[in-house]
């Protein structure tokens, strides 16, 4: 039997990750468990995706070097503003940098029960930008939600106000009020804590699949189809390199994010030979279509991760060999397939790990979430404008 997110017994070995569906996000906003200021524009219904909230840029607040390895100076990078004629109030995500960005809204939630996790949107991630700290939330202020995004590549990425750059997951700990040690905020108010727990448990949510047998059950019931076949490891889906790979070209003048659709794959990418193995050079952005393609029902979503510590993978450990171990650049969140997604898959192995890329190499792991009630608006719905739906190769969207 597939797990129920409200089964307290599943957490015997520690809390199992849960996230809100789009229905659950709307419920939490209506019940003021999640407060968004200013309120979302009701005319822009696509900000709430099947299991995430899209975040829009308000302003850039600074940048630092991505890391101090490879002889980079440990210094602060100035925020680079480019001419208004190029992009109104635009900012540049500079190559090899971690950027602090302020989003258009301040978002509050009861952090003991609901907590945020950040993921770069797929359209930005394909250009070489990721959350550099396992998707950890930065902080919020009166100015708006502060997040960090790293530009791992060698091209300037020019972004502008209101560009959708990231997406926010709402992780749920629905049984916080039942723990032996209540959160400090509620130490003297256990009844209030219990009441809050009941409200959180009323939200619609999904739960991570942690057993390979449950993945098999999803396949048998038609909720998950992996072509040509599914490979699993401790409940995670493994994806593998196909026979071809691409390297991002150096684009003179950088890439204007809003104009990304004007570039063809050949404008941005050049093929590389991985038949005998290939190790990405520092700051090189490599894209590898996987052997696997996916077909997900509205009940299943997949979050991918790169360079998971403790997972078996063949690689040349540049970080270890140079004594440059940095946990911020391990366990990198690496993309999300919404419930309802159908199409190909591609991965972007990070040069920081020095992993050898070759046909059949494991490129990452998929964390599968099961939504018993399905999501309200699956990926591919006309209302969402799902640009990658049905593409055989998710390299760059044509829309």
Characterization of this structure:
The chain is mainly β and 399 residues long. The protein is 11% helix and 33% strand. Strand 11 and strand 12 form a beta hairpin. The protein is globular. 42% of the residues are buried.
Radius of gyration: 21 Å
Which blocks of ≥5 consecutive residues have pLDDT under 50?
83-87, 313-325
Query: Which outline best applies?
Result: globular
Structural class: mainly beta
- Summarize the biggest pleated sheet: 8 strands, antiparallel
User: Mean pLDDT score, rounded?
Assistant: 84
DSSP strand tally: 30
Residues in helices, as a percent range: 10-25%
Distance between the termini: 40 Å
Descriptive key words:
single chain; 399 residues; mainly beta; eight-stranded antiparallel beta sheet; seven-stranded antiparallel beta sheet; 6 helices; 30 strands; 33% strand; globular
């Amino acid at each position: 039997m597939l797990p129920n997110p409200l089964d307290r017994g599943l957490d015997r070995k520690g809390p199992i990750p849960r996230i809100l569906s789009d229905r659950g996000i709307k419920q939490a906003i209506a019940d003021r468990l999640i407060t968004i200021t200013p309120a979302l524009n009701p005319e822009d219904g696509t900000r709430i995706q099947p299991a995430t909230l899209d975040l829009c840029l308000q302003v850039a607040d600074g940048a630092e070097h991505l890391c101090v390895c490879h002889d980079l100076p440990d210094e602060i990078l100035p925020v680079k503003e480019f001419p208004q004629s190029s992009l109104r109030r635009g900012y540049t995500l500079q190559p090899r940098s971690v950027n602090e960005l302020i989003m258009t809204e301040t978002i509050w939630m009861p952090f003991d029960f609901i907590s945020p996790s950040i993921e770069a949107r797929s359209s930005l991630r394909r250009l070489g930008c990721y959350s550099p700290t396992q998707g950890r939330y930065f902080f919020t202020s009166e100015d708006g939600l502060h997040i960090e995004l790293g530009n791992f590549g060698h091209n300037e990425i020019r972004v502008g106000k209101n560009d959708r750059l990231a997406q926010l997951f709402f992780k749920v700990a629905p049984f916080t009020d039942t723990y032996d040690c209540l959160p400090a905020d509620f130490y003297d108010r256990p009844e209030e804590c219990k009441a809050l727990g009941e409200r959180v448990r009323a939200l619609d949510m999904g739960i991570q699949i942690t057993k390979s047998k449950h993945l098999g059950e999803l396949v048998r019931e038609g909720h998950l189809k992996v072509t040509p076949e599914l490979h699993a490891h401790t409940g995670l889906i493994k994806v593998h390199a196909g026979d071809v790979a691409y390297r991002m070209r150096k684009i003179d003048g950088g890439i204007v994010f809003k104009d990304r659709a004007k570039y063809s794959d050949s404008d941005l990418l050049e093929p590389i030979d991985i038949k005998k193995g290939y190790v990405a050079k520092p700051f090189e952005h490599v894209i590898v279509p996987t052997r696997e393609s996916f077909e997900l029902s509205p009940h299943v979503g997949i979050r991918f991760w790169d360079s998971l510590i403790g997972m078996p993978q063949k690689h040349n450990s540049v970080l270890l060999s140079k004594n440059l171990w940095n946990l911020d650049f391990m366990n990198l969140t690496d993309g999300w397939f919404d419930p309802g997604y159908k199409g190909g898959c591609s991965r972007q192995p990070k040069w920081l790990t020095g992993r050898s890329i070759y046909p059949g190499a494991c490129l990452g792991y998929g964390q599968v979430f099961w939504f018993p009630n399905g999501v309200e608006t699956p990926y591919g719905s006309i209302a969402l404008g799902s640009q990658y739906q049905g593409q055989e190769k998710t390299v760059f969207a044509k829309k």
